[in-house]
């Protein structure tokens, strides 16, 4: 299972098909992205804490990456131990380092495990958090069932999947044809479908996440969407995040974009262009992520 909760645009490094991104190489970006999305995750975790029907003693962050959200889980559930589970040793080392920096080493540990294939190695948990990672697994239904099997009675499985595409500029921002972001979204959807088709064991399944949770034997499936609303002008970290999203699109879609759109995109990511994302005062960040949760009876 990949580190999707730090990936808020699906495009990856240069090229057309990337079923296995180089997450270790992306570590600084993963950390910055998680920090930018802290307000959204704070809302989501507050909702989970209130919704939990029983005490929470052990939490697993499935596909934790460098542990930024694992640390937020530890803050939201101060009575719980948190296990950051991920296949990448370098990212887990950073997660352990972050835990020590935050004074959480006694409550936040790491576990190297390839999910969902090695899910049996996970401890029995009161809460399993899997954020924007299941869409990197070929058989999403089987992955949900595997995670559900690691829940204690009364335990909660929370998935972050879906929501709304991010926006950072007005529909007409004075360069090229209006609607560039919507056209780029369409290209990204095409890329995403191709990425999904190339995954090992890929299976088509309707992405009705509440139904998939119910089919895994869980009860009380419900969903709620949380908003990230960072108005212009953005701080340096959020602006860098937006620029990186568009740079990845520039690297991924150059052969697919209309020539005029590609020209505009090149200007947006050119630090020397006076109308680039680096210099504009109208750059904002607006996005919505949906959390789907259900409980093991």
List the helices and strands and how they pair.
Elements: H1 27-36, H2 38-51, E1 58-62, H3 68-76, E2 81-86, H4 89-101, E3 108-112, E4 125-131, H5 140-148, E5 151-167, H6 180-198, H7 209-215, E6 219-230, H8 236-252, H9 259-268, E7 285-295
Parallel strand pairs: 1-2, 1-4, 2-3, 4-5
Antiparallel strand pairs: 5-7, 6-7
Helix pairs in contact: 1-8, 2-3, 8-9
Keywords:
disordered N terminus; Rossmann fold; 297 residues; globular; alpha/beta; seven-stranded mixed sheet
Structure characterization notes:
The protein has 297 residues and is of the alpha/beta class. The relative contact order is 0.17. A seven-stranded mixed β-sheet has the order 3-2-1-4-5-7-6. The longest helix has 19 residues, at 180-198. The radius of gyration is 19 Å and the shape is globular. Helix 1 crosses helix 8 (236-252), helix 2 (38-51) packs across helix 3 and helix 8 (236-252) runs antiparallel to helix 9 (259-268). The chain has a domain at 4-171 and 202-230 and 287-295: Rossmann fold, CATH 3.40.50. The model is unreliable at 2-19 (pLDDT under 50). Helices cover 36% and strands 21% of the residues. It is built from nine helices and seven strands, in the order ααβαβαββαβααβααβ.
Short description:
The protein has helices at residues 27-36, 38-51, 68-76, 89-101, 140-148, 180-198, 209-215, 236-252, 259-268, and strands at 58-62, 81-86, 108-112, 125-131, 151-167, 219-230, 285-295. The protein has 297 residues and is α/β, with parallel strands linked by helices.
